[in-house]
Amino acid sequence: MNLADLKTPALILDRSRLAANITRMQARAKALGVDLRPHMKTAKSAQVATIATRGFSGGITVSTLAEADYFLRNGFRDITYAIGIVPGKLDEIAALQSRGATVAVITDDVGVAGAIVQRAKASGARFRVLIEVDTGGGRAGVAPDSPELLAIAGALKAPGVDLAGVLTHAGHSYACETIGDIVEIAEAERAGAVEAAERLRAAGHPSPVVSVGSTPTALYARHLDGVTEMRPGNFVFFDLFQAALGSCSEADIAVSVLASVTGHHRGRNHILLDAGALALSKDTGANSRRPGTGYGAICQPAAALPEPGLAVLDVHQEHGIVGQAKALDAVGPFPFGRFSVGSRVRVLPNHVCMTAAMYDRYYVTDGSDAVLDTWDRVNGW
């Protein structure tokens, strides 16, 4: 089977690029002296997780309980659920653990900490908890020097509950303008997490885990002294946003969407694809650093790099409009002859986590148009 045989849109994974990206991050983790607990919210694939955890503890991070269930069924037992836990999900956590998983949950709320204790007492279940710390992202977490940190730790000090440590995520590293800015945020992320852990220990609370993570900070941290693990996720695939940020090159992007050319609009100087907003997502983040990216760059099916100057410039639900990057009504003529109706193209995504979310499988290649395998992925919550 090759790419021409696939129904479009289809999600294509270049196995060689995947392996190179993972090898790079594994080398970083080893150089920094920390465990690699990859965040599987991007790949959502047991096959990818198997490669990404090789040589490390085998622990993974997930963002949904559907992912936790899927990875447990595929043999992954050490799982961090990195979304603030709510009391209504504790029974599901307990059920996963009854099947052999060890699941760490996170909270930044003293009331939720009390609810965890009450649920442990009522059910006989045991819960492992990380306190979420805000090291500058401003999304969630308590400040490293806040009184809430110790209040939560105190509320968790009860039978059936294990305070495992602290967790933070420097998601604001994605807004950086320069590599130097990422380096600074990586240090703030590290220092804040270590400060929180040291405060817990000084107050008599355990903190064996000090967990940090984002793809940019993992790649550019000067050191991770005092940290025990990192949780990057996007690195397995990369995307145009990461390329624009400087975390990778276009040649590192491992996932693309295969689409068919469905029409020519010569009056507007563009072609149409059967991959629109649902197939590509409406994320345009890369455009802030890479103007003209639109909703994705265009590659020939077996080409290593995108076609210069062409992009998906507009999307409707099931339509993608490809034009020359400066405008839909560009002065120069579109190269219609190289994109006949019915031919195939690959679209490199702006934000691969969002793009991949609509698909239930990867068609695996090694950079050619031959499809070597099919790997599943989990979706939903």
In short:
With 381 residues, this protein is of the alpha/beta class. It has helices spanning 15-32, 46-52, 65-73, 90-98, 110-123, 147-155, 179-202, 215-220, 240-245, 277-280, 352-356, and strands at 10-14, 35-36, 60-62, 78-84, 102-107, 127-132, 161-167, 209-212, 229-230, 255-265, 270-273, 297-299, 310-315, 320-324, 344-348, 361-365, 373-376.
Secondary-structure element sequence? EHEHEHEHEHEHEHEHEHEEHEEEEHEE
pLDDT averaged over residues: 95
What is the overall shape? elongated
Q: What fraction strand? A: 15-25%
In total, how many beta strands?
A: 17
Terminal Cα span? 32 Å
Q: How large is the count of helical segments?
A: 11
Q: Poorly predicted ranges (pLDDT <50, ≥5 residues)? A: none
- Which class of secondary structure composition applies to the elements? alpha/beta
Main sheet record: 9 strands, mixed
| Rg | 22 Å
What's the helical proportion of residues? 25-40%
Written account of the structure:
The structure is a single chain. This protein is of the alpha/beta class and 381 residues long. 29% of the residues lie in helices and 22% in strands. It contains 11 helices and 17 strands. It has helices at residues 15-32, 46-52, 65-73, 90-98, 110-123, 147-155, 179-202, 215-220, 240-245, 277-280, 352-356, and strands spanning 10-14, 35-36, 60-62, 78-84, 102-107, 127-132, 161-167, 209-212, 229-230, 255-265, 270-273, 297-299, 310-315, 320-324, 344-348, 361-365, 373-376. The strands form 2 sheets. Strands 1, 10, 11, 12, 13, 14, 15, 16 and 17 form a 9-stranded mixed β-sheet that branches. The chain has an 8-stranded parallel β-sheet with strand order 2-9-8-7-6-5-4-3. Strand 8 (209-212), helix 8 and strand 9 form a beta-alpha-beta unit. The longest helix is centred in the middle third of the chain and has 24 residues, at 179-202. The radius of gyration is 22 Å and the shape is elongated. The model has no long low-confidence stretch (mean pLDDT 95).
